[in-house]
Fold:
Amino acid sequence: MRSNLHKMAIVGVLALAVLIISAGTALAAPVLMPGVTSAPGMSGTCTDCHTYAPSSTTTPTTTVSHPYVRSVKHHAGKAFKVWGYISPTLPDTTEATLTISVQKLTRRGWVAKPSLMTTGTVSQSGKFKNKTNYTDTVRFPSAGRYRMRVKLVWTDAADTVDTKWSRSYPVRVFK
Structure:
């Protein structure tokens, strides 16, 4: 008896779901095509009254790579080189400012270390061909777990200031 009630409840819920879905599609607004008479209750014939903007060639979005380093493990107090790329190539690298933001993992979570933030050099030549490259040197004073992100600020062709952040990159620093 109990299993029959369970089966009837499942069938009832499925029937209700089918009813709701069919009612939703029946009440949907009809889509009119040019030259087609409107749906019942509506008057007129649809004309090609819609004007759409022509598809324009959009400029590709600028991406900034995370900082690359030789190894994920480093020793405290020693400087190491960081490099990466910006794609597509920036037309004027003198207008670009690149900042490497550093955060340290503490008991409270990731904490920004403004004293470790540095400004990288942006140039057209480097490890990555046909891309704008950046380089910098970073020195961590104490051991721990860190992560770095790159912030790029540049002026585009329309004289607007744009900002782009990279993904974070983990670094372990040992004594």
